[in-house]
Amino acid sequence: MAFFSRGTSLFRCSLAVCAVSCVAAGLAEAQAPQQRPTDAQVDRFVRDLLGKMTLDEKIGQMEQAAGQPMYTPPAKQDELTRSGSVGSFLFTTDPVRINELQKIAVEQSRLKIPLLFGYDVIHGFRTIYPIPLAMASSWDPALVEKGQSMAAREARSAGVHWAFAPMVDIARDARWGRIMESAGEDPVLGEAIAAAQVRGFQGAYVGEPGHLISSVKHFAGYGAAEGGRDYDSSNISDDLLYNVYLRPYHAGVKAGTATLMSAYMDLNSVPATGNKWLLTDVLRKEWGFKGWVVSDWDAVKSLQVHGLAESPADAAARAANAGVNMEMTSSTYRETLKQSVAAGTISAATIDDLVRPMLATKYRMGLFTNPYVDLAAYKAAQVTAEQRTAARIAAEQSAVLLRNEGEALPLHKSVKAVAVIGPLADSKLDIMGSWAIHGDRNDSVTVLQGLREKLTGAQVTYTIGVEIERGSATIFDEQVVPEKLTLTTPEAKATEFAHALDLAKAADTVVMVLGEAQTMNGENASRASITLPGEQERLLEAVVATGKPVVLVVMTGRPVNLTWANEHVPAILNVWYPGTEGGHAVANLLVGDVNPSGHLPVTWPRDAGQEPLYYNQNIPQNPENVAQRYWDIPSTPLFPFGYGLSYSKFTVGAAVVSGSVTASGNVTVSVPVTNTSGVRGATVVQMYTHQRAGSAARPRRELKEFAKVTVGAGETKTISLTMPAKDLTYWSAASHSWVLEPGTFDVWVGLDSAASQHGEFSLTK
Ligand code: NOJ
Fold first, then answer.
1. Strand partners, 262
2. Which CATH number fits domain 14-368: 2.60.120.920, 3.10.290.10, 3.40.50.800, 3.20.20.300?
3. Residue 486 — very low, low, confident or very high, per pLDDT cuts 50/70/90?
4. In this structure, which residue's CA is closest to atom 4 in ligand 1?
5. Does an H or E element contain 395, and which?
6. Shortest-distance Cα residue to atom 7 of ligand 1
7. 119 C-alpha vs ligand 1 centroid, how far in Å?
8. Over the chain, what is the mean pLDDT?
9. pTM of whole model > 0.85?
10. 164 lines ligand 1 (CB under 6 A)
11. I need a labelling partner for 269 at 20 to 30 A (CA). Which of 438, 485, 520, 580 fits?
12. Which tens digit of pLDDT belongs to each residue from 530-554?
């Protein structure tokens, strides 16, 4: 879906010529295409350019305008560009239009500074990859890095320079719609996935050809929204902030992200976008961040809504003084910062400091040399076979087998009659997931299609059984058109329901594909309940009651309530939203051509009432006094963090711990992992520690190391996980400082956070 269907092509044939002749005339230093400049060259270029800029032009570089015509009409976009009043557009993805705007910028604006185009490349551009929560379920940073580098390549070919990703917010609450965009609840897994995404987007350095710059978001604490309600306040203790929430952002910074995005919500009552402590003291001074910060959409103006600022001018000055370099969509910078410099509420030197890294990034990215899209290369780069293969593999590695009683899976390829039932089984839209806004549903392979292609010898029947409401989510100016409900009368609903049962009865095996419509999660899509929407649970129960073997494929952006299913359905495969190639991946998994190996990056609750539910709480899980905190349900999760089955069977033998360590030493834990089955497979070996006593209570378990390992049929592998003792450092709420405290530590190794192989070691001075 492109946002611009208009578009006269001024550039179709003349890019190469234009690239060299029309850019950066009169500027200090021309840049050879794809040549990596030295830091000294960048500094010199930026100093010279800044020296030529008026205050208005500097403030223009701090403006990011919405590229959708409904927000910024094209004529206005042209005029802003021509007058040097804008540094970046977001949501312009039509390469023809990108070339038009770049031509105006580099031929008609006084200083010929090219534009930067940003977009939500969250889990793919045109080829849609599994949602980020799914990618994290692979526990495979290399796979995650590859996925984002593929997405970067596709987006960059369209002229997009900047991904508003990765979202690294820790998410401990399934009610929060944006949990789908996260890497889950754990800081250590979150750090690994955050860094992998930054590497994938950016490549080895900012400006590497075929890559984008990344934006680690939403700084900071957006995932802790009260009640899982999107945009609500986050109240996070210093303990949790330092030990949990801030860590993945810091990992993204260490991985070299060029930008961060400041969050909408207030963090402990100070809105993140006006939070100087966060954006300057922590980010720049403590972490040494040298890049730049963009606000979230309208977040600067919203400082008034939050009651931090009394006027647009106050909001702009507060955000800029706090350290927000670029304002997304609201234009308080453009409208007020000049007067604020005159009034002395912000200094000219601060403006220079904010502009410098943005000019440097444009230079590093080679835009002063060639800002244009090669339209032929763009077309050739979309949804290629290579993209499809990478997306399929990613989907295969992200699925989590939650249950497989009596080896109900894999399906025998010789099966003769399969009924595929459910509202998500053949939905080309839902399988892409949320944040697939540039994806084209016509590219999608559904589960039904995948199974029909795979089971060529079987009769594969299909019906939806029930419909689910999709609502009508509006994503910016793009209406996600809900697939129309067709069952509008009680009679039609009853007939369809009965038809599904008839198909189930006539089949040897039933594959039910149930879950959430993709509009039910993502931004602005929290849920108070996490039950299967609509009549899906009733349908599931009725199909199971037919006595036919049932396999449940769950397609969702958050953990949903599977309590009944977990007691009555022999096989449950959670595929999240697997993306463009989802149908092929799911079919491969269901028939055993691929062995499931994903593990949960979030604790799977029984019910929404348990949320927030996470494994690394402080109170030990003592069944005697903790498991029954609720009157009506157990307080334990349905599936623990880190959990995932396989068609292989793994056992983990006794843990051998290396012994006591000093602060500069390493702790190594080794376990034999045996695959007792006849099927080669992969699993995730996880190491957790617990500090028995110290200046502050510590989580009952904390993930420290993990490794995804493949073990052959009947094979035993000894897996050693090594943790530097300094990783036991934590921020103590007692001393308000980072501490590494000598003492005794428990260690567990296993295949999820309930791991039972236990050892201990001591940390000595
Ligand atoms: C608002 C979202 O919070 C943010 O994640 C996104 O990048 C921007 N809109 C731009 O679409």
1. 219, 295
2. 3.20.20.300
3. confident
4. 296
5. helix 385-398
6. 164
7. 9
8. 93
9. yes
10. yes
11. 520
12. 999 999 999 999 999 999 999 999 9
Apex 324 CA angle, 318 and 328, nearest 5: 105
Torsion of the alpha carbons at 512, 518, 522 and 523, rounded to the nearest 10: -150
As given in the structure block, the two tokens for residue 141 are 């940073």
Residue from 222, 297, 327, 478 whose mutation best tests the ligand 1 pocket (most atoms within 8 A of CB)? 297
* Angle value at C-alpha 184, between 179 and 185, nearest 5 degrees: 115
Q: How many residues does the chain have?
A: 765
* CATH 1.20.1440.20 is right for the domain spanning 400-597: no
Q: What is the CA(438)–ligand 1 centre distance, in A?
A: 14
Task: Render pLDDT for 252-264 as a digit per residue (tens, 0 to 9).
Answer: 999 999 999 999 9
DSSP string of 152-196, one letter each residue: HHHHHHTT--EE---B------TTSGGGGGS--S-HHHHHHHHHH
Q: Measured from the CB, is residue 154 less than 6 Å from ligand 1?
A: no
Q: Which residues form the catalytic set? A: 296
**pLDDT score of 82:** 98
Burial 572-582, CB ≥16 within 10 A → b, else e: bbbbbbbbbbb
Beta carbon of 523 within 6 Å of any ligand 1 atom: yes
Average pLDDT, stretch 577-600? 98
Q: Which residue ranges does the chain devote to CATH 2.60.40.10?
A: 650-764
What integer is the mean pLDDT of 486-507? 96
Question: What number does the ligand 1 atom closest to the CA of 167 have?
Answer: 5
Residue 351 identity:
I
Q: What is the C-alpha to C-alpha distance for residues 742 and 763, in angstroms, rounded to an integer?
A: 5
Angle at 47 between CA 44 and CA 48, to 5 degrees: 85
Q: Is 120 in the pocket of ligand 1 (CB under 6 A)?
A: yes
Phi-psi region of 717 (alpha: psi -120 to 50; beta: other; left: phi over 0): beta
What phi and psi, each to the nearest 5 degrees, are found at residue 423? Answer: -70, -10
- pLDDT, one tens digit per residue, over 589-608 is 999 999 999 999 999 999 99
Cα separation, 32 vs 751, whole angstroms: 51
Which residues are within 8 A (CB) of 625 and not within 5 positions of it... i.e. 6 or more apart? Answer: none
Q: Which atom of ligand 1 is nearest to the CA of 218?
A: 5
With a 6 Å cutoff on the Cβ, whether 705 touches ligand 1 is: no
Distance (Å, whole) CA 571 – CA 582: 19
- Tracing tokens 């500097």 back to the chain, one arrives at 58
Which protein residue's CA is at the shortest distance from atom 1 of ligand 1?
A: 297
Q: Is 162 in the pocket of ligand 1 (CB under 6 A)?
A: no
- Portions of the chain given CATH number 3.20.20.300: 14-368
pLDDT for residue 587:
98
Tokens of 369: 């040399």
**Residues contacting 498, CB < 8 A, separation 6+:** none
